[in-house]
């Protein structure tokens, strides 16, 4: 699909990469100075909705820059312009509801690196599209790096074909232990009561089962979640048959409060995990946030994370089916 839309012009940003013929992220700017207001942007998005949705899948990451998006309310208007269904976040990251469909991104310490992941990859239903809005850009660091997932699969198959196919055939099992209450001193500090939206254990178990996970209650009030089997790679419709590295092996293998192994209990070789971590970093793409930026991710195609940052930094998020 060639770029053709009079309501946007193509821009550039530092850190862009050309991946398999596609620019990531594709930067779209106002065509004229008097078209940078939120009303013009919303009209352009609604008028060109189908085209824009195809663009997200084609380029995997689309960055709206130079539009005067002032706050969470206007960001929410952008989210609503597409008519996408909302999907409630389930995961370990501590977050706060801001406005309607808008939440804070991970509120864990800015000094920590959030490892690359597909949003809600452990849950049976993941968001199709992830939207991020930069309300307060960080003075240093704080980038949101992302990785074309198919490139990780390609390179892992080149170096560890037998291990990759074994993991894909057997599937993966993950575990994660959550406290009862939120702990914002940890980037994995979301409590199970907040995650499941209830303090009733029986109701939490019902909701967990619907999401494809089992719960094991701990003496201290914490709960261990067990998920699996889960796929190592997946192929999604409309994405050139690419085999996506749709897992969180590196993010959970041997990490605090979590584990990742093959579904039959077989351990994943440490050298495979370590090399995968290196490959993901080698394939990463990042840009510097600017105030008012709105970033669209194809969550089926991209892993993303967060670099350590100096405060202040405020990036808001919405997740859509």
Which properties best describe this structure?
about 325 residues, alpha+beta, eight-stranded mixed sheet, four-stranded antiparallel sheet, about 25% helix, about 25% strand
Summarize this, please?
The protein is of the alpha+beta class. It is built from nine helices and 19 strands.
Would you give an account of this structure?
This protein has 321 residues and is an alpha+beta fold. 26% of the residues lie in helices and 26% in strands. The strands form 5 sheets. The chain has an 8-stranded mixed β-sheet, with helices on one face. The protein has a 4-stranded antiparallel β-sheet with strand order 12-13-11-16. Strand 14 (234-235) and strand 15 form a beta hairpin. The chain starts with 8 loop residues before the first strand and ends with a strand.
């Amino acid at each position: 699909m060639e770029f053709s839309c009079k309501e946007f012009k193509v821009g550039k940003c530092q850190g862009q990469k050309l991946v398999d013929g596609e620019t990531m992220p594709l930067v779209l700017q106002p065509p004229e100075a008097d078209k940078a207001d939120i009303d013009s942007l919303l009209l352009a998005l609604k008028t060109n909705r189908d085209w824009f949705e195809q663009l997200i899948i084609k380029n995997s990451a689309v960055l709206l820059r130079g539009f005067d998006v002032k706050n969470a309310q206007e960001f929410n208007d952008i989210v609503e312009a597409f008519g996408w269904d909302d999907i409630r976040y389930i995961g370990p990251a501590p977050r706060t509801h801001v406005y309607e469909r808008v939440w804070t991104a991970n509120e864990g310490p800015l000094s920590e690196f959030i490892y690359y992941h597909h949003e809600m990859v452990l849950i049976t239903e993941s968001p199709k599209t992830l939207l991020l809005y930069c309300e307060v850009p960080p003075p240093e660091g704080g980038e949101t790096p992302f990785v074309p997932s198919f490139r990780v699969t390609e390179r892992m198959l080149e170096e560890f074909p037998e291990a990759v196919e074994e993991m894909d055939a057997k599937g993966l099992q993950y575990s994660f232990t959550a406290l009862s209450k939120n702990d914002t001193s940890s980037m994995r500090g979301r409590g199970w009561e907040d995650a499941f939206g209830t303090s009733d254990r029986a109701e939490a178990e019902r909701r967990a089962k619907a999401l494809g996970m089992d719960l094991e209650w701990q003496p201290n009030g914490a709960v261990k979640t067990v998920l699996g089997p889960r796929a190592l790679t997946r192929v999604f419709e409309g994405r050139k048959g690419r085999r996506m590295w749709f897992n969180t092996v590196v993010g959970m293998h041997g990490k605090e409060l979590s584990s990742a192994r093959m579904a039959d209990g077989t351990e994943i070789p440490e050298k495979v995990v370590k090399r995968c971590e290196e490959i993901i970093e080698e394939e990463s793409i990042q840009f510097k946030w600017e105030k008012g930026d709105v970033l669209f991710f194809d969550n089926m195609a991209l892993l993303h994370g967060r670099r350590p940052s100096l405060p202040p930094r405020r990036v808001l998020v919405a997740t859509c089916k």
